Amino acid sequence: VPQRLATLATTAQEEAQQSWQQLQAQRQEVAQLQEQLNRARQDGERWASALQRAQREAVEREATRGAEQARQQELVRDMKGRLLELLREKDALWQKTEGIDTPPPSPAPREAGLCARCRKDFRLLSRRYNCRLCHGKVCHACSVDVGKHGRCCLLCYQQRRPQAT
């Protein structure tokens, strides 16, 4: 029995030694896991800080963008107002110019060899006519036959015609 007890004691001592070694290995593993956990917490805090900073920057950018958009909308509104003003001015000027008659015909050119309207040369086949109103020399294409009064240039005819009706 004493030998059996010695064997059991030795076996128990070896098992205790193995348990102690396993316990030490597990303690080392726990220490490593705690170290990893601490690093993960630190990383999480850094990420949370970076996220908060990014959110603040996004809010600031959004505020800046909102202010810029408001300025642009105001500019567009001002431009539309100015456009309406310009259109009103254009309409007013247009109405003022409606009553203005066309300018009187320009005097006949001094050169007797050119049509006063189209500046075409008078030749053998292009006949020259004297306008009865402005006395300019005009070709057949630039003149109108007004019956017993003779011929006149198109410009004088157009200005005279509204008065005749």
From TrEMBL:
CDD domains linked: FYVE_RUFY4
Pfam families: RUFY4 (PF25366)
Domain of life: Eukaryota
Coiled coil: 23-57
Domain called FYVE-type: residue spans: 109-161
Database matches in SUPFAM superfamilies: FYVE/PHD zinc finger
Keywords assigned: Coiled coil, Metal-binding, Zinc, Zinc-finger
GO MF terms, alphabetically ordered: zinc ion binding
Presence of keyword Zinc-finger: yes
Protein name: RUFY4 protein
Gene: Rufy4_1
